Amino acid sequence: MNVLYPVFAMMSLTLFCMMRLGHLRYLAVKRGEVDPRFFSLYRGYEEPEKLAVYSRHVINHFEAPVLFYVICLTAQFSGQSGNAIIGLAWAYVGLRFLHSYVHLSRNVVIVRFRVFIVSMLILAGLWAVVLTGLMRQ
User: Fold this and answer.
1) Which domains does the chain carry?
2) Structure confidence by residue, pLDDT tens digits, 9-35
3) Which of 35, 69, 78, 84 could serve as 45's disulfide partner, Cβ 3.0–4.6 Å?
4) Which residues neighbour 67 within 8 Å (Cβ) at sequence distance 6 or greater?
5) Alpha-carbon dihedral angle through residues 50, 96, 115, 19, given to the nearest 10 degrees
6) Helix, strand, coil shares, percent, the chain, to 5
C-alpha cells in the first residue's frame, strides 16, 4: 500500500472541515447571527461559539498535521513504505478523524486532549521509523 493514501484521507478531512466552516459562516451571516464585517479583521464583533470552535479546529489542521504531510512525503520520496510506516500513518489519520469528531461534537476537552497526545506519540513514532530507515539507506 502507498503511504500517500493516508495523506489523501487527511487532506479530505481538512477540506471537509474548511468547507463546513465556510457553510456555517455563510448561514450565520444569513441568519443575522454575526455581522459580516467581523470577517474582515476577525475582531470588533461577537463570533458565535460554534463558529469559534470550527475556526479553531480548521486552524488545528494546519499545525501538527503539517508534520504528518512532511514525514509521509519524506517516506514516499525515499522509497520507504513498510507496514510500520503505513500502519502508523493510518493510525495517525484515524486519531485525527476521532479528534475532529470529539472537537466538533460534544467537545470534551480531556477526551480531545488524550486523543491529541496519542496522535502526537504516533506521529513521533512515524518520524522515528522514517528517520531510522533513512539512516540505513
Assistant:
1) 4-136 (1.20.120)
2) 999 999 999 999 999 999 999 999 998
3) 35
4) 123, 127
5) 0
6) 80, 0, 20
